[in-house]
Amino acid sequence: VTVATTSRLEAVQAAAGQEGFDALVLVGPPHLAYVAGFHATPHERLIALVVPRHGPLRLVVPSLEEEAARAAAPDAELEVWRDETGPADALANALAGLADGARVGIEKSRLPVATYELAASLAPNASFGDADPLLRRLRIVKDEAELELFRRAGAAIDRAIEALAPGLRAGRTEAEVSAEAGRLAAEAGSEKIAFGPAVLTGPRSALPHAAAGAAVLQDGDLVIVDFGAVVGGYSSDITRTFVVGGQPDARQQELFDVVRAAQRAALDAVRPGVPCAEIDRTARAVIRDAGLGEYFVHRTGHGLGLEIHEPPYLDGGNEEPLGAGMVITVEPGVYVPGYGGVRIEDDAVVTADGVELLTRAPVSLAAAS
Ligand code: ZN
Ligand code: ZN
Asked: Which among 320, 328, 237, 327 has a CA at the least distance from the CA of 278?
């Protein structure tokens, strides 16, 4: 599945022109996918997309990526390089024609210094500026074709977590459950592992960013499962918290009810024009009022797209307003050190007057039994 890229390229070129750039030189795989429809995995080899102010894209690729690049971006001019010669000549060809004193937009957040120095040596009279804000602004609002991919990614992860929950039994390790989560996501239509899957049980469920390991699920323990599906390059991201054996005690239920109420309040607050920080404050107020404020140690959510974490970030310092077409997660949590944690995460599109939920799997501590 690909998203139509012709009008998108025109939009990128127009925006680059407005920012005073004569060309963009992009290396980030999400930007290559967004601008050229080319889903690349560069590893250590240089893949670069040169976006001139006018005219066709120029794509610098190692020879082993030539066929994939041609198929994905048939209108792009390819500059192919081989391992034994290196990428300098290909990049020089792609940069040829830049006027003396050209202003070139780069991704300051992800362009390797070595690549920057190579580009600067090949275009010695160019000046370089940060194109990240421009790309962030374009990518933050999703079009209908992208939203359709999000809907499919959300439906896939819903099916996967519903299939996974009954198998959260005592005696299995986090790593086993994580592998099964990945397999179920693939069977539900995910084209690759989005991240993790994170599976954290017992006291380890209080570690918001740990990875699944050798810990064994035990009856009565909390277990957090956080994973995603990828469709057409676009990710879903869901978290559910369960009690192994399906019988929560009063403390577990209390933590869960508070987090669920915080998530509902935050989702209810989402609409265009509301600052991202306000969504965070809304969730945080519910948790703080329940006396659990010190245990909510991360932001309330993040944007989703070609990356699993991208703007807009729903944190207390981000007063940027939400806008229709943005796709966000809402994922409050509480993490009691040495005891355990609860997080509930769903994905949503900001609509004209609220949200459209992209993930709808049941939310219940008892779903695993
Ligand atoms: Zn997540
Ligand atoms: Zn998330």
From this structure: 320
